[in-house]
């Protein structure tokens, strides 16, 4: 496979329609040559892929559609909650049948998604790849399935990662469920992780003032409540080697009069009542009040 086609496949997420490659200037002869060499595979009629293509993306194509909702959000690196089903957007009037697979799914990169869910919907935003919907359409689909908190967390994650531009927000809000309208004033994209957004939204009912991503000396605080209680949220990717740095950071803050509470991903997602109780008890401390 020539470097030019290799670059094009990488740009397309390692899975593309033949017509997409030809629109980028690749000839049918060069594509067929790569297929004969085995450096390009044919997962389904009209499509080509490398072995780096995602299994969930190939399955979406076999279902005559594209990844959407949580499945698409994860391919963009956007926080997408706990739903691991494979969500596929299928154009209206497309039959509910799979296309014939021309290459085993096992040849492509595993993703852990399972349990296909089809969505017969239209799209409102342009996508650069044919195997997944745009960030905007993925967020809209996600919001139709998930809670308001999860939806806001996904939107903020998209803003923070710059996969969603702030200038696209007004158009996005026009297509989101109306029930999310109440959250519009609090969406700003500063939260570094979806769990930070969840914690901030939930703690908003218990505190007089909440600030996020506050700079204190050399440190940046995830959530600062009433000017003195620092709530830190360790993401799912948090590793043990960071423990010493976090301990030193917390010691520095405590020495300057702050109280630090630290919760991990699992606590925020599955044991929030205990987290909220700890925050409330700390805020009730008469010595602090």
Provide tags for this entry.
289 residues, alpha/beta, Endonuclease, Chain A, four-stranded mixed beta sheet, three-stranded mixed beta sheet, 12 helices, 38% helix, elongated
Notes on the structure:
The chain has 289 residues and is an alpha/beta fold. It folds into three domains: 1-53; 55-101 and 111-186, no CATH class; 194-283, VSR Endonuclease (Endonuclease, Chain A, 3-Layer(aba) Sandwich). 38% of the residues lie in helices and 16% in strands. It has helices at residues 3-11, 18-23, 28-37, 55-62, 69-75, 135-145, 148-160, 169-175, 194-203, 243-254, 265-270, 272-283, and strands at residues 15-17, 47-49, 66-67, 85-90, 114-120, 210-216, 219-225, 229-234, 259-264. Helix 10 links the parallel strand 8 (229-234) and strand 9. The relative contact order is 0.09.
